[in-house]
Amino acid sequence: MVTARQTALVEDFLKSLRPELLQEDVFLQGLSRTVGRDGVIRQLNESVYRNITWGPAEAGEQHIKVIGKSPPGSPTAGFVLLFEVADGQIAAIRQQPLFGGAPIAAAPVRLTDEIKALVDNALAARHPIVVAYVDEIGQPVLSFRGSTQAFSDDQLAIWVRNSDGYLLRSIEKNPKIALMYRDEDTKATYQFQGRARVSDDEADRRRIYDKMAPAERNHDPAKLGIALIVDLDRVEGWAGMAANGQVGRVRMIRN
């Protein structure tokens, strides 16, 4: 059971960040693990923690819990820290973010070169794009679309090989679709929402067909597919993850 002395130790540490209150091999476990006194102190001195208001330390059976709240309007709501104390020093800190926080300001839809490159190379990088749409009877459907590519600053495109498939019939009734990109290695994650439409323009067809991955072209050497263009209304996501959360967040909304 956690003692009052251990609880007081944690409160003292959060007020002072004195390194001698930590064991040499202490670790801070968040989205990644930081090991050692210097690294833990350095991380807790980062800007995301500077304006946190820490609540009282709460003793549990194995951990001491402290909830920290960010000021109103901050992008992060705060953190929960769980402390483990042994031999009069802090041995481990486990961090969990609080949900909430102010959304980042929206910008107009304008895909960055980095996002375009991720989409264009998704299949080759073994992170194929998932497309979501609603079929003719209102059933949500998910499918991988390896031909997905950036078409302009505010458009994506897809080469649909099966001209009689569910996707094309479905968007005639409801053109709204969503697409998801995820790289589990870097944690880059982007969701795209927009309206899909068929393009019969021969220049569009040639451009979309020629740009897609060779593996996709090899499935349709006769070019029987349909060119689909997605006018994007919303793009949200982030470029990756750091120890304290998402980095490179984007929020784009048309108009």
Characteristic terms for this protein:
255 residues; alpha+beta; Nuclear Transport Factor 2, Chain: A; Pnp Oxidase, Chain A; 2 domains; eight-stranded antiparallel sheet; seven-stranded mixed sheet; 39% strand; elongated
Description:
The protein is built from seven helices and 17 strands. The chain folds into two domains: 4-97, Nuclear Transport Factor 2, Chain: A (Roll), CATH 3.10.450.50; 113-253, Electron Transport, Fmn-binding Protein, Chain A (Pnp Oxidase, Chain A, Roll), CATH 2.30.110.10. 22% of the residues lie in helices and 39% in strands. A hairpin with a 5-residue loop joins β8 (130-134) and β9 (140-144). It has helices at 4-16, 37-44, 47-50, 113-120, 166-173, 202-211, 214-217; strands spanning 22-29, 33-35, 53-54, 58-59, 64-69, 78-86, 89-97, 130-134, 140-144, 149-152, 155-160, 176-182, 189-199, 226-238, 240-242, 245-247, 250-253. By secondary structure, the chain is of the alpha+beta class. The protein is elongated and about 75 Å long.
